[in-house]
Amino acid sequence: MTEQKPVSDTNAAKVTLPDAQTVSTVKHWTDRLFSFRVARPASLRFRSGEFVMIGLMGDNGKPLLRAYSIASPAWDEELEFYSIKVPEGPLTSKLQHIQPGDQIILRPKPVGTLVHDALLPGKRIWFLATGTGLAPFASLMREPETYEKYDEVIMMHTCRTVDELEYGRVLVESLKDDPLIGELVGDKLKYYPTTTREDFHHMGRITDNLSSGKVFADLGLAPMDPATDRAMVCGSLAFNKDVMEVLENFGLREGANSEPREYVVEKAFVGDGI
Length: 274
Ligand code: FAD
Ligand code: A2P
Prior knowledge:
Blueprint: E1 20-28, E2 33-39, E3 51-57, E4 63-69, E5 78-84, H1 92-95, E6 103-111, E7 124-130, H2 135-140, H3 144-149, E8 152-159, H4 166-175, H5 182-185, E9 189-195, H6 206-211, H7 214-219, E10 229-235, H8 237-249, E11 263-267
Parallel strand pairs: 7-8, 7-10, 8-9, 10-11
Antiparallel strand pairs: 1-2, 1-6, 2-5, 3-4, 3-6
Bound molecules: flavin-adenine dinucleotide (FAD) and adenosine-2'-5'-diphosphate.
Residues 51, 66-69, 82-84, 86, 89-93, 131-132, 135, 266-274 line the site of flavin-adenine dinucleotide (FAD).
């Protein structure tokens, strides 16, 4: 596990209000992944699935900000984030050391394409994510509108190893007993986690499991159909590009807030991965 260092001396003292928010909890899932929760500014309204800019004060006294999906749903009193730790990453090499009580900068201007308004009405929705691309779906899986709009919600999440799936597994597990949305979720949510580089009960890339029909067979579902199926995609650029091709082969077309269609896509990060 990564060594824990307080950042208060380099961070909190320099943050200029009103964009500073206090960290309430931090959980490290692996040496590459952690999640944390911060106080929610009273004025911040967002749609589940959107992202904001968050960060810390840089050594040069200027804010060092990066895009982050809000992993908590729009109704939550706090904001949750699910983060990578890039060893030499300008932000996450520091952010990974935050502790409860520290402050981060949060620019309260939520935006994004992974929102229900960007899709035409349908019967099933597919959430397709690799790595930290799960974050917007951690929000949308806890959003009542998801279950009000769709009969079935299929969450496909793929990582290289089993431990990288843990945040999503724990979250999905918690939904059943959630006093606020547990009943709405019922048995509508079908969770299909896979690994690609470690043995697991389900394996393989999302693209392959969709193209081969394996996921439909495993879950007992009919193949994707543009009349009934909607999808939201969040992963690396390469993943997004390849999965878009698969969705187009099923007849789905990319939509946007301004022109709702059958699927929407957002980058989980910029770059080729680490
Ligand atoms: P950077 O200089 O930003 O990145 C260095 C390199 O690390 C990148 O070139 C890339 O190869 C790799 N990298 C960066 N982020 C990731 C990642 N998430 N997974 C795998 N490799 C990565 N990151 C999150 O951890 N959680 C989020 O919810 C999240 N949401 C995002 C939403 C959008 C719309 C975008 C564009 C990016 C999002 N990111 C998210 C990525 C985030 O903005 C930063 O890139 C990340 O926090 C690393 O910052 P850094 O300054 O340490 O390194
Ligand atoms: P694989 O192990 O076969 O490369 P990464 O950690 O590199 O961001 O990848 C996260 C997950 O996404 C891995 O399981 C990886 O599978 C998968 N993946 C990476 N690129 C693609 C792609 N172009 N299409 C489908 N899945 C991909």
